[in-house]
Amino acid sequence: MYSLLRGLLLALRHGIRGWRKRTRHPLEQGAFASPLNGAVTLSYPHARFPVPENGHYRLHVTIEDCIGCDLCARVCPVNCITIEKQRSQTLLGYTSSGAPRRFHLPRFDIDHALCCFCGLCTVVCPTECIVMEPVYDYATDDRAALVLRFGERSDVPS
Prior knowledge:
Number of domains: 2
CATH topology of the largest domain: Alpha-Beta Plaits
Radius of gyration: 24 Å
Shape: elongated
CATH architecture of the largest domain: 2-Layer Sandwich
CATH class of the largest domain: Alpha Beta
Distance between the termini: 76 Å
Number of strands: 7
C-alpha cells in the first residue's frame, strides 16, 4: 500500500510540474545535461538535438578507398553488407592511404533495415573507407530506400 501511494504522489508531482508554464531554454551544447524540471520540447525540423561524436548512425562508404578485402561483410553479425568483387588483371590505382586497388566492386550494398549499428565494420576496415555519418533522421516508409548502394557499376566491363 505504501509503494502504491508513493507512486501516485510521484505521478501527481510530475503532472503538476508539467502544467506550470516554463520559460524557453536555448538549444546549446550541454543544455540537456543540466537538470531541468519536466519535459523538454524541441521543434524538430527547425532545431535538432546535438549529435554525439561517438554515436552509431548511418553508414557511408567511400568506394574509391575500398580495396575489396571483404572484412566488413564477414564481421557483420546480421549480414547486412553485400559485396561482389571482380579481380582486375591490372592495378586499378591506389587509395587515399596508399593501398593498391586490385578489385572492381560492382556491388557494395548496405541494408540499413537489417543493420544493428554496432560499428564493427568500421573498426575492421584497413583503409577506413566505411564510416558512420552523424545522420539520424532517415526514416522512410519504403524498405527499399534503406538499402544504400555504393558499387562501381559503371566501371564494370560488360
